[in-house]
Amino acid sequence: MNISIITVGKLKEKYLKQGIDEYLKRLSAYAKIEIIEVPDEKAPEELSDTEMLQVKQKEGERILSKIHPDAHVIALAIEGKMKISEELADGLDKLATYGKSKVTFVIGGSLGLSSEVLQRANEKLSFSKMTFPHQLMRLILVEQVYRAFRILRGEPYHK
Ligand SMILES: C[S@@+](CC[C@H](N)C(=O)[O-])C[C@H]1O[C@@H](n2cnc3c(N)ncnc32)[C@H](O)[C@@H]1O
């Protein structure tokens, strides 16, 4: 399976980078995985609603330009569907079974994802009703994808 994770902005925090690199290394035994960073737009606090929309749209265009036409897209969105880890694992397994070998996860920038990206998504996945910083979300996502593969292989993983 080819998994890509499209994210907005450069990862700045060293501790997150170390954690993500560790899971990417572990995941390489199960799948081909890459993280694609698209540039973020400046989003100062005092933006109007129209300006916020423009930021999301510009970032959205960059995200959409990186999505392969055949990719099954899973957008991370607070209002999306919550799943238990086994359901995420099962979903990835089904995609592989039905020949959908390209899976793209998308994480929005500080203002979230544009409606165009959400429309392109085949699924919207929520990790809880709480808002996580987008850079931390990368680490949570790679851990859950790793967990999914361990579950599918029936390999032991701490609860
Ligand atoms: C700082 S959040 C954006 C918050 C923005 N107000 C919104 O509602 O989307 C940045 C990105 O992280 C991801 N994210 C944050 N919390 C999440 C959660 N609980 N479940 C799924 N994705 C989340 C989403 O992709 C979101 O676009």
From TrEMBL:
First-tier enzyme category under EC: transferase
Record bears the keyword Transferase: yes
Cell location: Cytoplasm
Enzyme Commission number: 2.1.1.177
Quaternary structure annotation from Swiss-Prot or TrEMBL: Homodimer.
Function noted in UniProt: Specifically methylates the pseudouridine at position 1915 (m3Psi1915) in 23S rRNA.
Name of this chain's protein: Ribosomal RNA large subunit methyltransferase H
